Queue: 2 jobs
Job 1
Amino acid sequence: MSKLEFHFTPVDGPSETEDSPNPHAKSTTFVPEAVKALQDTFGDDVQEVFLYANEHTVYVSKDRIVDVCRYLKEELGFTYLVDIGGIDLFTDEDRYEVFYNLVNLKEGKRLRLKTRVDEESSSLPSVTGVYRAAGWNEREAWDMFGLRFEGHPDLRRMFMPEDFEYHPLRKEFPLLGVPGSLPLPPQTPEAGLTLDPFAAAHGSKPIKSYEEAASDE
Amino acid sequence: MSDDILGGEGFLTTRVDAVVNWARSNSLMPMPMGLACCAIEMMAFAAPKYDVARFGSEAMRFSPRQADLMIVAGWVSYKMAHTVRRVWDQMADPKWCIAMGACASTGGMHRCYGVVQGCDNFLPVDIYIPGCPPRPEALIHALMDIQEKIRNQYSVSTDAHEGKGAAEPTALRPRVLTPSGEGAISPATLYGTTEG
């Protein structure tokens, strides 16, 4: 992963951390102690640590994500889960990425956890056992990316209708949607659902599935 | 009323249509279907500065049974479309519909999978208002257009023929579908495939 040099507009004043590449970056996201503690405790399961724009990002393996979250919450004081979300990197290996933004309210520190999820399984353990607030965020990631969070108590779609077949934030999903996948209401009491004429009118044809066609190679 | 105006006889003659339309057009009760930021302008439209009470429409009714003008203010998602249509179906005839703003009229900037590209895909819209969001004056203008439309309707003949099987009077507004449900968009004709 190439590193891009990036400097914020200095509005916060220089940070006290001397080893920061950017003296104007915020110090709240600079958490070397927590990163060190994670590396000592989890060893190789902490895969990579990035420092970019003075923000620490810790990649952990998805099998240990619950343990890492529990350790961060109970030992290091990261009690507040701000957000969970998915990212579709559209790569051959480890296609999806899930991020966890955590905050230590007492010390005013922030940490970003990330884990990679392969397309085969598209599943990872749910952290609802550690952070109750993860429930809806994980449902959203399931809805938008089709990532199954094993152990989630109620993994339903968050936004799309429950009978929707696709996961719209995946890269292969067409922006205009799939014609007929989201019916409009009946226009008379006895009539059936009406299909959306918009996508078809703009040349979008229904396709049978999202399995990519095999390439020639 | 003074005797002078009524010619001293105490009565006046008019057409029923004129009286009914006068009453309907000056007592429109809007059903505020506020779905996004347009609803903020719709609030201003009802608030004292713009004061829609001047047009007899200050009584916003959140119950569809008591409303006869639906103002779709904001973008409609496919999921919400079913609710909007159900509320519309619960409103008693005669009823009118305003598509307020770019999103309700055409989908606006939300040109994507989840947003209906214009609420006229499932509602019979009478007036479209451009703007993002439109100013309250634009909504008042739309309301005045609706009033103008009502005043030019043949209300009595329409009501008399409703459900009688007699020859329908000329449609007063374009229908999305025929009354019997024919002409509904079917997957087969639309996409050239029989798969559901």
Note: Residues 92 and 214 of chain A are 14 Å apart (CA to CA).
Job 2
Amino acid sequence: MTPKVVLVTGVSRFLGGHLAARFAANPDIERVLGVDTEPPPRDLLRRMGRAEFVRADIRNPLISKVISTANVDTVVHASVTASPAGPTGRTVMKEMNVIGTMQLLAACQKSPKVQKLVVKSTSAVYGSSSRDPAVFTEDMGPKDLPSSGYAKDAVEVEGYVRGFGRRRPDVNVTTLRFTNFIGPRIDTVLTRYFALPVVPTVLGYDARVQLLHSEDALAVLERATLHDLPGVFNVGGDGVLLLSQAIRRAGRLNLPVPSAAVPTVGGFFRSARLVDFSPDQMRFLNWGRVIDTTLLKKEFGFTPRWTTQQAFDDYVNGRGLKPLIDPETIDAAERGILDAAARFR
Amino acid sequence: MAGARVIPLHDPERDAARRSRHVEVVPEPEQQQSATPDWERRLADLLSFARRRIAGDYQVDEFGFDRDLTENVLMPPLKPLYEKWFRVETIGLNNIPSAGGALIVANHSGTVPLDALMTSFGIASEHPAHRHMRMLGADLVFRTPVLGALARKSGQTLACNPDAERLMSSGELVGVWPEGFKGIGKPFKDRYKLQRFGRGGFVSAALKTGAPIIPCSIVGAEEIYPMIGDIKALARLLGFPYFPVTPFFPLLGPLGAIPLPSKWYIEFGEPIRTDVFGENAADDPMLVFNLTDQVRETIQQTLYRLLTQRRNVFLG
């Protein structure tokens, strides 16, 4: 079933905005509504074309009026986010994530026209610890429930979404658990982290990192909206990079920090406005997280075009990250040593 | 690529070889290889390894197994220990299939899990298919900094059913030491007495994936650090499952940490098939218990047989 009227939340951010732009370019969709608390940046707004921007706070019951008067039949909830707006933005972020979702779901429940709900969730709901299996499938849960931050928000959001699914069994609910996004255009905590000239890591740990190209993320969200594919799906690129390996591929220098000093260093980077890591993201740097995407390929019918490694390389090239040691220098050094060795034979 | 780089431009010997090859119809790659000395080829390998590491140009699987690092850095130091120190002899390597999932179940001993390292080195170096055994480790290993990261890079993963099943169904050779800390940290007087085999989780994983179970008996590892005492208070303080006291440790300090050079035998028994029990065999607890017992008994009997054949702990 192709939706007639689509409402997308979080359009002033990368995913929501570009998703609205894709829907606007689709002639089968009659109307595209984009909701956010602040207007999208100008270039994003231009891309969105005929999509209408509604400046509304999803924490406000007003959203219910928007949904019912516009006859929205499909809601794409893409505003659940891991990036706080600023140093004090963590409380606001939590409110937007959790209370916003509650209000939005309440509005959806009220409107009989709503036929489909697509939720952008995260694989952070699986947590990250040493006692976890290496690869998470959709039916696994976290060993210990995340006590704070984005992961906890996402667990709560998914709980409300499940509740909504029970109360409105006629609505197709698709929950997508994404890995971290990467790409030349998207701006996330991770893209800022790898762009640091010296990248701090936790001493003695090397996380397995699975990434998803932002274009693949958009394609998955689009597919979930245009087709009826209810269920919970893990979404991530194929393959794995070790954190140390990713830092080397980006040509950065690795700065191992002892566990005890991690909060201090994290605080420094936060106050310097370089990268804002929450404690659950710090844990992610310790253990990493890999998810199984069999269901995505078999049932959802989507195979990511970029593997984790390709997506990361695309990010490195697209951002123009210059390696601290030029690969040419390394090649030259290798040749030089071998030539010298040949002379000594 | 690496081979092509080491060819020097001006070398009379090689030039002669090249000229002679022009005349020949079939070029001989062997001759070309022998023209560059061995150490130079090794240097080239080393340099290309270093370049790969600096550029991050290698593959890691979803469990974190880094084959490049394991083969070039982690495995080589085990070679002298395996060949010269413990003089390990493997028996029945042909019982390990060359491809496809299989589960090696072995006895655990020796205070420090050198038996696991030696078994995996033995299979990687002496088995015709040079397979990497993917070991299942305790969560203590993965919680520990440095060690946990190294364990993952060397192909180990957490001992839990989802991981074991995932490895075996993707055709990997999995190694498990079901006695765990009870086996490795048992006092010297209990040597070669198998401890309880967990809850049989490894059997149900094998049943689910239909992978054969290969019982493996290791003789010699019990004597490397004869554990005559256990300082429980210190162990609790440090968060270890035990704190070993051997005749030389901690008495001689770091010197006491040198393992005794016992002679080792590692015997792989006949594979036990698990794909003959039908669909829901893993949900039959009685079958799981029986199979667990069968594996345990096989290992225990093989241990006794190997011990009666052994005349001297150090000479074999």
Note: Chain B is about 45% helix and 10% strand.
